[in-house]
Amino acid sequence: MEQDITLKKEGQGLAFLKPLVTKLTPKFQKGDILSSLKKAGITIVSILLFLGLWQLGSKALYNKEADYKIEKALTERGQEAADAERACIESGDSSCQPNTLPSPAQVWGSLQSLIADHKVITADKAAFVEKMAKTNAKLTAQGKNAIVYTGRASFVDIVLTSIKTVFAGFLLALLIAVPIGIIIGLSPSLRSAFNWFIQIFKPVSPVVWYLLVFMIVKTLYIGDSSDNAFVISFISVGLCAMWATLVNTAMGVASVDKDYINVAKVLKLGTFQKVFKVILPSSLPLIFTGLRITLSVAWMVLIAIELLAQSQGLGLFVWEEFQNGANDSNAKIIVAMFVIGIIGFLLDRIMLSVQNLVSFNKNEMA
Amino acid sequence: MTELKENKQMGTTQNGILYPSPVMLDLNDLKKVYPTPKGDYVVLEHLNLQIMKEEFVTIIGHSGCGKTTMLSMIAGLNPISGGNISVLGNPVKGPGPDRGVIFQSPSLMPWMTALQNVLLGVNKVFAHATKAQRQDIAKYYLHKVGLDGAFHKKASELSQGMQQRVGIARAFAIKPKVLLLDEPFGMLDSLTRGELQDILIEIWNKEKITAVMITHDVDEAIFLADRVVMMTSGPRAKIGDVLNIDFERPRTRKSVLEHDDYYTYRKHLIDFLEH
Question: Hey, are the CB atoms on A267 and B107 less than 8 Å from each other?
């Protein structure tokens, strides 16, 4: 039991690793093995169940789509065409496959091909760099810009772009929302002055934020040929996502325990000391709760914004695959969906760990 | 500057000579009114109390009679509706480190260590001392409350009783003129309470800081005090009765319990509270 308690205390944020940690820990009691085995078992069963349902669903949709195709061939071009269509579908030829929800196996195959593609592109890039090394050295010596690889981005590059964008947006949100939150939390009159602003802009959709940022950045970048999709997307992400932090920071600062404020009053601490030694530390847990929400919102709106901003991230990848309509496009979209979900989950866990680290009263944390 | 002059004029127990104790804390016709939609609610009215230098006064009364209101008015945390409060003749206009407060809940900053909590006040009050000197002051008082091993423990890791010890150290370390204690042991179990009473009285015997303490506990009131002030039940609470406790100092719990007058005092207080 003792071990269980320490794990809970330290690993709340990474509690999903608990079965793994428990398995890797040599000393534990019998009850622990049983309960963690049971937990792992339940997880595995539920995953299998999910895959099974998915398989059945995609199979049903595949058949429906195939029947429709054959039917259509029959009514439009007669029996012969229908037979040819059926034979084509059954042969697995890529030219006539029904385009519908892909099965788990197809998605797995797409993931493999995306990884293989990444390897090819990485090799290409390395070869390019090697080939251009001399020319680039000359160009740099002449004070000109070096020639960089501008080929197709691999899936891994796309994911990294998305992560880079979300962190830039998150940082922007943090830099805007935390200081403003502290200031309006400290002053009730500023709080009422800002309240309408927060209430009106908080519910605005990511798409509209993107358009607003686009209007402004487009003008600022006039005459500059550089690609500003990244700038537009991270600013939009930041503006969309900062509200939770702003509201939570203001609330945390405004609702510091009265006892602490009384102590500060009795000791006659100066404003600076009061803010940095009493108010800020005591509102840190709420600020970090806000930051955690901000990061998850940022990741969620990122996909839509990248799509609009044509930024080379997951959002654009998903949209281009959809427009592309190639045979394995749907499977690639599902791969992207899982990658988005897993990264979002990991980001949230990281924030939860940080949040637990700064919270001074671990027993009070949910 | 006025502080020094006053100290010279008033004098204290020096070289074994007891100078007459001047009034340290003066509550004069004090009044507290809370406006409510149904009209004003008068918590305290016509409250007069003089507390002498180096005196330990406990205040006892029924819950809700306005004891805490009175104490927070002395602390300057609660505005005065009428009358006035003065410390050594200077009217109280707000909170300040000349009146140290030990709150009912320890009110430590949970993200700071025990030492940092005490230093928070010490750094403010002894701003001109060197860092080492301020550390020494804080450590001295933590040592006095028996927390030698816990200087660098986070306040949130300490037990309630240990937290309140830090609270005592923090209040004494800023060397206030008046110490205000708002039921400081009310949330502790009786064993811990006894320990902390002993610690409090031991430090107090040494520092002799004028103290006003609110309590619900008749035995605690007698054990610690030179005078027990009994407040009438609210609304319009005022001083109902005052009982002088003539036990010698330093006292031990045993000597107090065995003293002939102990039960007379106790009966007096209980009679008051029951009527």
Answer: no
Q: Tell me whether residues A267 and B124 touch, CB distance under 8 A.
A: yes
SS3 A124: helix
User: If contacts are CB pairs under 8 Å, which of residues 225-284 in chain A contact chain B?
Assistant: 257, 259-260, 262-263, 265-269, 273, 277-278, 281-282, 284
Model pLDDT for residues B56-66, shown as the tens digit of each residue = 999 998 888 88
CA angle A243, A245, A247 (to 5 degrees): 65
Q: Which two tokens stand for residue B228?
A: 């027990």
Superfamily of domain A153-364: MetI-like (1.10.3720.10)
How close A353 comes to chain B (CA, Å)? 17
Residues of A in contact with B103 (CB under 8 A): 259, 262-263
Residue A81, chain B, CB below 8 Å: the answer is no
Mean pLDDT (whole number) for B181-208: 90
Is a pLDDT exceeding 50 seen at residue A137? yes
Q: Indicate the average pLDDT of chain B.
A: 86
Tens of pLDDT, residue by residue over A286-323, are 999 999 999 999 999 998 898 888 888 899 999 998 88
Chain B residues whose CB is inside 8 A of the A361 CB are: 110, 156
Q: Is the pLDDT of residue A361 over 80?
A: no
Instruction: Report helix, strand and coil shares of chain B as percent, to nearest 5.
Output: 40, 25, 35
Asked if A262's CB is within 8 angstroms of B103's CB, the reply is yes
Q: Is A118 on the interface with B (CB under 8 A)?
A: no
**Residue B174 phi, psi dihedral angles, 5° rounding:** -85, 10
Q: Which position has the token pair 């595995």?
A: A44
Which are the contacts of A255, defined by CB distance < 8 A and separation ≥ 6?
Answer: A283, A286
Residue A335: the pLDDT is 93
> B270 and chain A: CB distance < 8 Å anywhere?
no
Q: Considering only CB atoms, which chain B residues are within 8 Å of A263?
A: 101, 103, 107, 109, 120
Number of Cβ pairs < 8 A linking chain A and chain B: 58
Residue B182 near residue B149, CB atoms below 8 Å: no
Say which residue, B58 or B16, is predicted with more confidence.
Answer: B58
Is B187 part of the contact surface with chain A (CB cutoff 8 Å)? no
Stated pTM of the model: 0.77
The answer on pLDDT for B185 being more than 80 is yes
Alpha helices in chain A (DSSP H): 2-10, 18-24, 30-77, 79-91, 104-141, 155-186, 188-201, 206-220, 229-254, 258-266, 271-273, 280-309, 314-324, 329-358
pLDDT tier, A363 (very low <50, low <70, confident <90, very high otherwise): very low
Question: Is B100 near chain A, with CB under 8 Å?
Answer: yes
Q: Which chain A residue lies closest to B155 (C-alpha atoms)?
A: A360
Over residues A158-174, the mean pLDDT reads: 94
pLDDT digits (tens, 9 = 90+) for A12-37: 555 556 555 555 555 556 678 888 88
Nearest to B268 by CA among B245, B234, B236, B239: B245
Q: A266 and B111 in contact by Cβ < 8 A?
A: no
Rounded to the nearest 5°, which phi and psi values hold at A243? -65, -40
